[in-house]
Structure to design on (648 residues):
């Protein structure tokens, strides 16, 4: 085991997969020299053909990744901030996600788009701080991965690269510098299994990405009062419904915490999926926490009003046990 | 330039097949027996056939919503395309596409884009794959004049030029973007001039002359094989009908269609040339045309008699189930 950052774990996954398969290559804006640094250094081993700096052209980055994937390559495209993915939206939604279906399965698009979401420690404001993964849950044909720690990041990215479908891999800026234990030996994590990050019996707390850390801290803070089970779905498509439903059947309480704005967000989808199976097991109405339905403002005092915080999670949980 | 008698005859057959196919499709649609978006391509046959005949079987072709002719020129069976228009399981996409997103993977034709300009960046990625693999294949992307106003076109041309990718950007300028005449959607006189902005060669060629299109594309392919980068080829022709099978094109100035029909119809022009060069006799031409008419009739019959896709297969192929590790 070694204690490494989320960035280092992602880099290790890329390095291992590029060594393993010569068709894997990286492309994106300033991938060798700027940005958050996930790809930095890889060009020294793999050369500029396989670690490619691109113009600032998200439609062409994503679209050409689709085209290269159709021809048997396994591109890993980086979109520097998830907000920029909107420029390449057609290429994801109308092209990548439809190729297999419209070709009777004859064509595949084995590509990964890696992109960071969420607020930054230095304040990105309305066009650099969004959390957009929920909207992609409405697009059949995509797989969506959202790891919350270095161990999951590495194992899931390796699986995403090996998967024959278009995968969007949502990272979180605040997670990049977080450290965690990662084994020296090779491992992969399938794109279909949630992780029970902490077992508990009174409440099922489903959380993703940066919210997992907050949730685990709250569970620790409240451990003498409430036994909280923290589940990280890790993949939104496919969604490991069974693990979540089984937990709720056991606890009778469900809180979903995700940084997406709540309106039309993944929180509602998960609650809906669970209610169809576990409604009669409920002891309290299911609750959800997300960002407010506003853009993300710059000022720190405003920003923390918008995004889910540890305090908001704690308060909500206490409300759920107030009677 | 590899244009023997057989090849010239093959090109005529291919052009006539497209025209006949499209005329039949238009009629069936207007009779109310077909639905969907059917963008027929009467008048554009020389661009489709000239370009595709200049490629090898190994090369990759990205088509668009007005793509029936591209697939027919490449050799996709009219039966399979017609069956697709009828939504049948025997269609190119087993009834999942209809008119706009045809596919023939075995002939190097991925799914066509129904989004204007949607294939241009994707095609650029195919050329990138060829460059990385050094497989010597050329990718050709077909799009219309309307698509040269969308961001994909500009992002792709810049990227392809920067990386010297083996791709031909082939603009089928049919002078209309849906119902908007070109002069009303862009100010540039020649679309090929847009190549200048990307330090790429750009040429404009008569898109109603199949031999000129063929030679232009062939030369581009040869240059790419010698290591030259991408090229923008603008072919100028005229969409003899409306935007789609049901559109009567009443927004066009009076007499415009008649004039093009009379003077610039690519099939009439090419037929005349073949007769003059004594490559075919009138009798031989008639025989070819009759054969093709019969083939298209059979395609319609095949489509009508084919089975509908089974409802329980609706979720198949959304995801690739195989080969994921």
């Amino acid at each position: 085991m070694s204690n490494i950052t989320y960035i280092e774990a992602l880099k290790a996954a890329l390095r291992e997969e590029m060594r393993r398969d010569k068709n894997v290559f990286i492309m994106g804006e300033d991938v060798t020299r700027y940005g958050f640094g996930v790809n930095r250094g890889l060009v020294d081993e793999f050369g500029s053909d396989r670690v490619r700096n691109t113009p600032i052209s998200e439609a062409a980055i994503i679209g050409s990744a689709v085209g290269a994937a159709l021809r048997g390559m396994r591109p890993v495209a980086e979109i520097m901030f998830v907000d920029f993915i909107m420029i390449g939206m057609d290429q994801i939604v109308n092209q990548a996600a439809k190729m297999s279906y419209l070709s009777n399965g004859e064509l595949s698009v084995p590509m990964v788009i890696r992109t960071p979401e969420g607020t930054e420690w230095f304040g990105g404001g309305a066009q650099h701080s969004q959390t957009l993964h929920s909207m992609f849950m409405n697009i059949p044909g995509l797989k969506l991965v959202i790891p919350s720690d270095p161990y999951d990041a590495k194992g899931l990215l390796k699986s995403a690269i090996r998967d024959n479908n278009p995968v969007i891999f949502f990272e979180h800026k605040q997670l990049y510098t977080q450290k965690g234990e990662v084994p020296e030996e090779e491992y992969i994590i399938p794109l279909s299994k949630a992780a029970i990050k902490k077992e508990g019996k009174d409440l099922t707390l489903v959380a993703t990405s940066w919210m997992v850390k907050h949730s685990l801290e709250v569970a620790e803070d409240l451990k003498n009062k409430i036994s909280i089970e923290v589940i990280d779905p890790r993949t939104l498509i496919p969604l490991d419904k069974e693990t979540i439903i089984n937990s709720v059947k056991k606890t009778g309480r469900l809180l979903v915490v995700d940084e997406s704005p709540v309106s039309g967000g993944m929180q509602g989808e998960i609650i809906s999926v669970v209610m169809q199976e576990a409604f009669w097991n409920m002891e309290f109405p299911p609750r959800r926490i997300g960002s407010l339905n506003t853009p993300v403002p710059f000022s720190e005092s405003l920003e923390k009003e918008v995004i889910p915080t540890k305090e908001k999670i704690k308060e909500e949980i206490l409300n759920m046990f107030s009677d | 330039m590899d244009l023997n008698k057989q090849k010239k005859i093959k090109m005529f057959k291919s052009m006539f097949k497209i025209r006949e196919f499209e005329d039949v499709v238009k009629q069936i649609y207007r009779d109310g027996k077909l639905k969907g978006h059917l963008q027929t391509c009467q008048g554009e046959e020389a661009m489709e056939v000239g370009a595709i005949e200049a490629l090898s079987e190994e090369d990759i072709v990205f088509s668009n919503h007005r793509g029936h002719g591209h697939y027919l020129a490449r050799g996709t069976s009219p039966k399979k395309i017609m069956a697709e228009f009828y939504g049948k399981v025997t269609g190119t996409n087993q009834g999942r596409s209809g008119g706009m997103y045809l596919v023939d993977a075995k002939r190097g034709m991925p799914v066509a884009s129904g989004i204007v300009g949607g294939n241009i960046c994707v095609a650029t990625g195919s050329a990138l794959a060829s460059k990385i693999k050094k497989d010597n294949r050329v990718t050709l992307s077909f799009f219309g004049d309307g698509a040269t106003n969308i961001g994909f076109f500009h992002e792709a041309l810049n990227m392809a030029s920067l990386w010297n990718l083996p791709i031909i950007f082939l603009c089928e300028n049919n002078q209309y973007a849906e119902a908007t005449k070109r002069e009303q959607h862009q100010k540039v006189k020649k679309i090929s001039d847009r190549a200048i902005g990307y330090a790429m060669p750009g040429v404009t060629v008569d898109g109603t002359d199949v031999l000129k299109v063929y030679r232009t594309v062939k030369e581009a392919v040869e240059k790419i094989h010698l290591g030259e980068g991408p090229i923008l080829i603008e072919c100028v022709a005229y969409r003899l009908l409306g935007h789609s099978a049901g559109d009567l094109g009443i927004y066009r100035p009076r007499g415009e269609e008649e004039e093009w029909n009379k003077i610039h119809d690519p099939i009439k022009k090419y037929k005349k040339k073949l007769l003059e060069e004594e490559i075919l006799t009138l009798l031989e031409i008639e025989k070819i045309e009759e054969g093709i008419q019969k083939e298209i009739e059979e395609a319609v019959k095949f489509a009508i008699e084919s089975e509908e896709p089974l409802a329980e297969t609706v979720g198949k192929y959304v995801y690739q189930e195989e080969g994921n590790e």
In short: The longest strand of chain B covers residues 167-173.
